[in-house]
Design a protein that fits this description.
The chain has 309 residues and is α+β, with helices and mostly antiparallel strands. 47% of the residues lie in helices and 14% in strands. The protein contains eleven helices and nine strands. The strands form three sheets. The chain has a five-stranded antiparallel beta sheet, with no helix packed on it.
């Protein structure tokens, strides 16, 4: 905090207060810097300095695509600090209800369509190796560390074959589109009826349905499956995809499976390694999403058996 205050003093701000406002799943911290007549958000990425440059670079890409994001007021890349516009305290998650979910989620879906027009040249690719490494977190942290389930060598080989099959399916859909990678209701702010996107520094070039899965099958909140299906189809229409509904939902299902297997591992790791136990309550919904997909496809039944142990 001493370094933060020294930087704020250098910027010429006086008579201010600083309050921590967000516990992040990453190593970043966020503070609200309040002055007499205005406030800012201070991002402290001093433990994750390599995320600063991507945040700035992705901000520019998003703004060019007319996607609303916080503006950068000042930056200290060497220390890992950014001063950002204050978007307030109203997350999309705070406004969701059975009455509002369709309207708000479709606003989010429209933002995905805008983001997917962004030129992805220079972005890291969401490729096979990366998807496999993400899903490996499930076996390491969720099965072994969290559930004390230890697979035999044969079991590990069989699991690896299934994970490769999942990636095979994911790679059948259009690729190399802008992917936010964590596009859910807690990473979307609502300001005067407009959506503002945050936490996008890990964006990659990847599969068509990734961000759609992130928002419609949000691991923090669940809505009626038929409503989710109808909104997914609206995305398909907005994108004018020349593909059958059956094939589109296969893309959607396997993309969701890849993402949710990763999240099982991440939630377990956050608890065990980082002492952030609050994410444990979100494991049951994440697991439910996984098993629902597994039960729809015979090739995934062995995975369901492992997870139901």
């Amino acid at each position: 905090m001493q370094q933060i205050k020294a930087w704020i003093d250098e910027l010429g701000y006086i008579d201010y207060t600083i309050d921590e406002i967000k516990a992040d799943a990453s190593f970043r911290k966020y503070y609200r810097l309040t002055l007499k007549d205005k406030s800012f958000i201070l991002m402290d990425a001093s433990l994750d300095k390599e995320s600063i440059a991507p945040f700035i670079e992705i901000s520019v890409r998003l703004l060019k695509a007319k996607v609303e994001v916080p503006r950068i007021i000042s930056q200290n890349i060497q220390e890992g600090f950014l001063l950002l516009t204050d978007l307030g305290t109203q997350h999309l998650a705070d406004m969701l209800s059975p009455m509002s979910v369709k309207l708000l989620y479709m606003k989010g879906v429209s933002e995905i369509v805008k983001m997917q027009k962004i030129d992805t040249k220079g972005l890291d690719v969401y490729d096979r190796a990366f998807m496999m490494s993400e899903m490996s977190l499930m076996e390491e942290w969720y099965l072994r560390q969290h559930k004390s389930i230890f697979l035999s060598e044969e079991g590990l080989n069989n699991l690896n074959k299934i994970l490769n099959l999942i990636v095979d399916e994911v790679l059948k859909q259009p690729q190399d589109l802008f992917v936010h990678r964590d596009f859910h209701s807690r990473n979307i702010m609502l300001v005067s009826g407009k959506l503002f996107i945050i936490d996008y520094q890990d964006a990659k070039a990847g599969p068509l349905t990734y961000d759609l899965v992130s928002i419609l099958k949000d691991v923090y909140v669940e809505y009626d499956a038929e409503l989710i299906k109808s909104m997914a189809l609206e995305f398909k229409e907005l994108k004018r995809l020349d593909v059958s509904d059956e094939e589109f939902f296969r893309w959607f299902d396997f993309m969701a499976l890849q993402r949710h297997l990763k999240i099982l591992g991440i939630f377990a790791r956050l608890n065990i390694r980082d002492g952030k136990s609050g994410y444990l309550k979100d494991i049951p919904l994440t697991l439910k999403y996984v098993l629902e997909v597994c039960d729809r496809y015979d090739m995934l039944k062995p995975l369901a058996e492992i997870l139901r142990k």
